[in-house]
Prior knowledge:
Blueprint: H1 3-18, E1 22-26, E2 36-42, E3 59-65, E4 72-78, E5 81-88, E6 96-100, H2 102-105, E7 113-114, E8 116-132, E9 140-144, E10 152-156, E11 164-169, E12 175-180, E13 189-192, E14 195-198, E15 202-207, E16 212-216, E17 231-247, E18 250-253, E19 256-264, E20 268-273, E21 281-284, E22 297-302, E23 307-313, E24 317-323, E25 329-333, E26 338-339, E27 341-353, E28 368-371, E29 381-387, E30 396-404, E31 411-413, E32 416-417, E33 424-428, E34 433-439, E35 443-449, E36 456-463, E37 466-471, E38 555-556, E39 564-567, E40 587-590, E41 608-609, E42 615-616, E43 638-639, E44 647-648, E45 653-654, E46 660-661, H3 662-666, H4 685-714, E47 726-729, H5 734-740, E48 770-773
Parallel strand pairs: 26-33
Antiparallel strand pairs: 1-29, 2-8, 3-6, 3-8, 4-5, 4-8, 7-16, 8-9, 10-17, 11-16, 11-17, 12-15, 12-17, 13-14, 17-20, 18-19, 21-27, 22-25, 22-27, 23-24, 23-27, 27-28, 29-35, 30-34, 30-36, 31-32, 31-35, 33-34, 36-37, 38-39, 39-40, 41-42, 43-44, 45-46, 47-48
Keywords: Membrane, Transmembrane, Transmembrane helix
Domain IgGFc-binding protein N-terminal: 142-461
Region (Disordered): 504-533, 752-778
Amino acid sequence: MSSAMTSRAVALRYVGNLLAIVFCIYRTKGAGTTYGNLFVVTNLKVIGNHSDPSRLPGQVEFFLYTAAADGVQVTVTFRNATVQSLIILPGVKNMNQVSANPKLFSFEKDLARKSVYVFKGSGLFGLCVLIMQSYAEDSFETFLAIPVDGWGKLYYLVSLESRVSAQFVTGEHNSTLTVLLRFADRSMVFKYHGISYGTGSNLIVDLPPWRAFSLSNCDDNRLSSSFTGTYVRGTSPFGVISGNCLDGTINVLCDDPMLEREQKGRQSVLVEMLPPLEQYGREFIPVLITGRTSHDYFITVAGHDDVNVTFFNKEDERNDYYLKYRGDSLRITLKGGLGMLKSNKGVLVMYVMRSACFGSKAEVGGPSFCLIVPNELFYHTYTWSTKTSSLPLVVLSYICIVIRVSNIPQLYMDGEFFKADTTWNLVSGAPEWRAGHAMIEQGNHLMKHTSGSPFGLYLYGLGHYSSYMHPAGFITSSINAVCHTSPTVPGDLVDNDCDKRIDEEIEDNKDDDDDGYIDEDLRDTPVGGASGETTAEIQIPGVVNGGWSVWTEWHCQDCLDTRVFRTRDCNNPSPLEGGRNCYGGRLEAKFGQCYTEITCPEDCPLYYWSSNCSKTCFNCMGDCRKNSGVCERCVSGFKSPQNSCTTACEEYEFGPNCEGDCMAKCDDDCFNRVTGECSDSWISFRTLVPALIPIIIVANACIFWGYHKQKQTLLPTGESKPSRSWTLYTAISSEKIREMLAPWKSLETPRVKPFEDMPPDTNLFSSRTTFSTTESQV
């Protein structure tokens, strides 16, 4: 036997063993979950390195599973020809497997346009995909297929840097795809039919029904570039599988996890089936795999412009990020703990398990992709299967549960309540949430919440330099698109009240989500477990469940509503350490006679408010709110817009809203609370008079002295009898001086007497003194 044949035999035996690892997920509901009756999956380009003939092509295996008691008949077709027809049955021993034959694809001339496998069932079933790479013996990945009724028309791609790959598949309808390429390295191009397409290029692809298109650089051994943020839109729904044919992450030193090496660590295939834009969420809890030295990270992709992202890391430290344009992405490293991620608009979150750290053989795990499910799309029941056999590598399987701490006691798994000794980790920024990990044995498993409360579930496995990870399923209903309210049907998996949440109400005639509506978006009737099961609560140390206070008195609340209301608060006691919130609503209403004979505030004229327009807000800058009297701002001299601007500015304040600072402007208090004028800008009477008195005295003394001096010089020596007398007037008359000096009686008032024998036109004083002639008799 030749060495080539020996190598082929060894490889096939290895593949056969590896196929025994199966991760099959299903949901007990059909429409709106990852459990359906029609799936389409293409041959993935990642299955082989065709440019290297010394390597065997990889392998793709499909595993089918159902919860239907009578089983489901499934027909598998390829190019309109039936490949296999089988009946899948429930139960641990009824594992159903279909292999994708690589030879079927070798006849396709266009490597970009491919045929597809179509799985049609008579009932609901789940489809799991296992991909094995030929580049390395420990390179494999799993992902959960999304049924056709969970597809959409708009996606954003996600990948790492090397050998990127994306597959687009159609169902029974053709779809014209528009691909707006976006590479991290702007020099990167994708070549198709001799044409190069780079960042910003539009690639138009017409796909007929039941076909696939591959956007891939798998055969390029050179380091390529991530296409995260590439925008793909179709004229009808289609499916997307995105990832890398072979890649790893820049690993870290085991002795110093904060220090990255320049080269990448162990590489593997990474792949995930992506949800469409309408399934992007706003709240996420990125899982954290414990027991690894390497710090894993997650990628967040914006589905809209102007996205604000907040992530709480260890010790509730808040980190804010901004994504300006749709398709923009950011990478956040998980260091030391779980945290809540929130955004104001829909985003896609992908968890990246890093390559094993460098410098230790004890590190487990390797590169893997995992979709992080929005909290809004958690479900309440999951089933999966894990089955292993003797393999060249050992892979241990685990589950990660993300759940509200108040719902842990009702968690049910494999016929009994979930073990209470599981370690539940806190979630920074969301004290009501916990995440717990548990190792699971091979076989089939069922986990559900007995009251129908949703929770998240992830499956992962760790081997030496290898790993896998994917969600255990999710609701595939729209939470990020134009919404119209609709009548509710319990468990219809529809956002009936358009609040971006699915089936959040319990049918109890109460407002369970505190939105003012009762039973408007109902979940399933609480499901039971095994016969005789109870829901006795498990006490968790430090956790305090909330309790209601007493009801308030019935009272009127809204002038346009004649009903009376009463309220209560969840503070007796308040929930602590993530304890359960109070069950039921905080508000009740009944028919009444409120506001039937009064004028409602909305009908009040300008600057009047309250019932019967009994209150005013004249000091508001513009009209106030009619129910509360709150103003936007106050006019100068007044403050407290929340109280109708009824408070005048106090000491050292002035201006609109009393925001002016007298000390900063005047170094003292202001003279005017409206304008902020300082006190030294006004000359008061008390200040003016004492300042003028000495000036007046000196001025008049000078006048008299100058007059007498000139009189001796100017008067003639001879006698004369003037027919006129000259009267002296100063700029400030004697009468005015008397008025100004009236408060000070002790001061003598200066006088100016008429002088005789003065020649006409004689100027005795400076220009500040004037003369007037008057007729007088001597």
